[in-house]
Amino acid sequence: MSHVIRLAKKSDSEDILRIYAPYIEDTAVSFETEVPTVAEFAGRIENIGRQYPYLVYQVDNRIVGYAYASRHRERDAYRYDVDVSIYVLPEYQGSGAAYKLYDCLFTILKEQGYYNVYAAYTVPNDRSMKFHNKFGFSLIGTHHNTGYKFGRWHDVAWLEKVIKEGTEEPGIIKSIKELPQELIEGIFHLHTL
Questions:
Q1: Percent with pLDDT over 90 in the chain
Q2: In angstroms, rounded to a whole number, what is the distance separating the alpha carbons of residues 59 and 89?
Q3: C-beta separation of 161 from 36 below 8 A
Q4: In the chain, helix, strand, coil percent, each to 5?
Q5: 186 within 8 A of 3, measured Cβ to Cβ
Q6: Is the pLDDT of residue 193 over 90?
Q7: What gap in Å lies between CA 190 and CA 193, rounded to an integer?
């Protein structure tokens, strides 16, 4: 079996959306209520991919999971922070694919110059809680009754992880496109061994 992590392309949007759609339609994991079109989703991949890593995990040329970073908050002082999201096909949960995706994502984010990573999940979700705890995330708070889906209110837990210790004068943030291709390929290779 071949395992590959790589940057997502617009042409992957249908396969990625196939992973994401059940989380929208059948769960409160995602607070979206309508499945986006393939074209809309391709636009999201393109927009996010201008600055942040948007990764896919493939097993024998089939995309089985994806993870990406996005802007944390609008104000400029937050520019060293990112939000992260990850989705994996149910049959690949517990296979190590999610772990490798996240580890790879954090390595790239650190190379870009980011310091803090934030994640959120709808509670209760023991699997997500344990997964994030394994990565050293800390619970920083809960938004109570913050999302209404499937006829009821849901709480969301917010977590943080420091990937790079703060300094008095942080450097310049590089876009994913500014990182050397050899560096990115090397990170991908290390995370699929």
A1: 94
A2: 12
A3: no
A4: 40, 30, 30
A5: no
A6: no
A7: 6
- Reported pTM: 0.95
Type of residue found at 60: D
The DSSP output letter for 37 is P
What domains sit in the chain, N to C, each tagged with a CATH number?
A: 3-190 (3.40.630.30)
- Comparing CA positions, the residue from 191, 47, 170, 179 lying closest to residue 115 is 170
Identify the helix (H) or strand (E) that includes residue 65.
Answer: strand 62-71
Average per-residue pLDDT for the chain:
95
Beta carbons of 141 and 158 less than 8 angstroms apart: yes
Q: For residue range 76-119, what is the model confidence (pLDDT) as tens digits?
A: 999 999 999 999 999 999 899 999 999 999 999 999 999 999 99
Which residue has tokens 């609008």?
Answer: 74
Q: Which amino acid, residue 99?
A: Y
